[in-house]
Amino acid sequence: MSCNRYPHMFTPMTIKGVTFKNRVLASPITTNRIVDHGYPTPEGIDVYETKARGGFAEVTVTESFIDHEYAWRHEHGLNVWENPMTTFHMESIMTLTEAIKAHGAVASVQLNHVGAMNHPDTIPGHKNPIGPSAFLRDDGVQVEEMTVEMMEKTAAQWAEAAWNCKALGFQMVNLHGGHGWLLNQFISPMFNHRTDEFGGSMENRARFPILVCKKIKEACGDDFLIEYRMSGSERIEGGMTLEDGIEFAQIIQDHVDLIHVTSGIYHSHVETKAFSSMFDKHGCNLDLSEAIKKHVHVPVVAVGGFNGPDQIEEALATGKCDFVAMGRQQFADPAFVNKTLMGREDEIAPCLRCSCFNPLAPDPDKRPIPELWHCAVNPWGQRELRWRNAPKPAGKRKVLVVGGGPAGMYAAITAAERGHDVTLAEKSGRLGGLLWFTGVDEHKESLRRYRDSLAVRCQRTGVNIQLNTPVTKDYIRAMQPDAVICAVGSHPFVPPIPGIEKAIHAVEVYKDMTVLGKKCVIIGGGAIGCESGYFFASHCGVEVKILEMREDICMDSGDSQRRALIPRMKKAGMTWDCNVSVKEITGSGVRYVDETGAEQFAGADCVIYACGNRSNDDVVKELEGVCPWFVTVGDAKKARIVKYATYEGFCAAMDIL
User: Residue 492: in which H helix or E strand, if any?
Assistant: First the structure.
């Protein structure tokens, strides 16, 4: 049992009669179809129960609002502002809390008011949003200053919503006092410019949050816990500093039961670490929680990019926090805690901190296209109920998976878990496909761990792994499988540029980075070109210039990824030219035409190309026709990202009946 290896992680704690069975909490995070008009859907209930079943000590339902007027900003929250005894949604929310508590988890819900960051379009009657002080926002929206009477009314609404939550089975509330929302706005010098008793000193600025907490305790009793989520620092010029955070925590501690330390503001979420990126260290807010814990007597919760049990144990053992909360990792592996408890840490799918809920960078010339929020490493995630109800196989089938990349491995795992006899044939001597380079690039350590976890799961589910095994039609005929899943991957596209033979593909550089020299030019400014270029610049100290034919770099990455990567590229000294046409690669650099039509030359010791990949469709066509049940998945179908490879491999295996 891994409770011996992680003693701090699995030590229970009881607060005012509420027992947390371990120190790992599932923080509030939105999911698909969680509610319908304010009421939990069957899918939403199932998602939260899955987390509770997976071992989390506390499961917090996503951000809900205290009223449907000034507080409300989206439709994902529960309707807890209306009296449950006079509405028809009482049973559905009680079913949700019952499902969470059935597995020993504490049922919590986050309550919020977005205050000055709301928009008239969201407010009934299109009134102006409210906040501690009046000001005109950068987007032209006028924010109105709250009167004392409005503050009293809002605090009473918070208490009423909290009482409704208690009546419906929740054992605690998470008050969102961070990320630039209303409670945080009163604390932050960026928002609060009042000159009355609610402005000026920290003691005065804290009066409204204290008023809210007092009214909740009056309404709900002391046994209904308050977990106060605060930004330990806003990490932005003019905002709260850590010193402010410590002072506020000392003031609020006597009115709450736990202090949950995050950072930043929502509208600059990546830049301020409200949501950490793959380039931030794990536990990126531990400096804040550690400092605050030294000055308070209530338990402190840390959040921010945790995705491994070793990280959690270290944070707890060194006294930097009392609990660790996980956000996106819940999507990646809801069974994180139980896998750790059972000594199966090497099977955990780590969160890649990619873009499960961030769309591609907006194109002002195109209409936005909605996209469901899904996890790159967990195709079950947010689809659990649907797939749990999928048809069961009628019998054991002989399944051949061709290719040992992420699509092939996930297909093999899924087929084996469903009781089939599975052989995975990989032509090389290792599993992982194109992810081999993740063992070198330190920014890809979570992706490497994901690759390795798939290999472990293949072995433990009994997949017959055959390395150094090229598959031919004769191989398939000899095996006589009932189903073939073809996951033969893709290869780099070699652009038809004169002198391209003098260049090297970006991923190949990882085999011997001495080829970089002191200066390199990368042809192609998509995700691969930008991310590999940043590693070469930051890790190897190479001067990197990118040449991109499109109007901007990193256009195929999510908004959060761009926000995280591009400033770091600039800091590392990287440069780039867009709207260019590369004419020739010479022995000393690249000749190209810039966006003005002028011919330019970029000198380089090494020229690299990263112009996308193409499916190995020749291999696919060569293997088709032997087995009637033949499905192509992942890059072999179309070269894309890990998210689609994983999902398609999973779906193909689920369809073998």
Answer: strand 490-492
Contact 307, 446 (CB under 8 A): yes
Cross-strand partners of 25: 58, 325
Residue appearing with tokens 């590392």: 572
Instruction: Give the span between the Cα atoms of 229 and 181, in whole angstroms.
Output: 11
d(CA 23, CA 13): 8
Q: What is the pLDDT of residue 123?
A: 86
Lowest-pLDDT choice from 87-91, 211-215, 285-289, 334-338: 87-91
Cross-strand pairs, 20: 13
Query: How would you class 212 by CB atoms within 10 Å of its CB: exposed for 0-12, middle for 13-18, buried for 19 or more?
Result: buried
What is the distance between the alpha carbons of residues 285 and 263, in angstroms, rounded to a whole number?
7
DSSP 626: S
Are β-strands 24-26 and 58-65 bridged in parallel, bridged antiparallel, or unpaired? parallel
* Mean pLDDT, residues 223-239 taken together: 96
Going by pLDDT thresholds of 50, 70 and 90, the confidence category of residue 73 is confident
Q: Is the pLDDT of residue 361 over 80?
A: no
Query: Dmax over Cα atoms in the chain, in whole Å?
Result: 84
Give me the sign of the Cα torsion angle 78, 83, 84, 88. Answer: negative
CA distances from 628 to 303, 456, 487 (A): 50, 30, 16
Which DSSP state fits 77? S
Torsion-angle region of residue 639: left (phi > 0), alpha (psi -120 to 50) or beta?
beta
Cα(52)–Cα(335) distance, rounded to whole angstroms? 9
Selection from 37, 28, 91 nearest residue 62 by Cα: 28
Element (H, E) at 98: helix 90-101
Beta strand pairing call for 24-26 and 323-326: parallel
Residue whose C-alpha is closest to residue 72's, from 22, 141, 121, 32: 121
Output the six-digit token pair for 192. 């609060």
DSSP category for residue 511: G
Element (H, E) at 417: helix 406-417
Our measurement of the distance from residue 310's CA atom to the centroid of its chain's CA atoms, rounded to an integer in Å, reads: 19
Neighbours of 197 (CB within 10 A): 12
The pTM of this model reads 0.95
Q: What is the DSSP letter of 223?
A: T
For 505-548, how does the pLDDT look when each residue is reduced to its tens digit (9 = 90+)? 999 999 999 999 999 999 999 999 999 999 999 999 999 999 99
pLDDT value at residue 352: 95
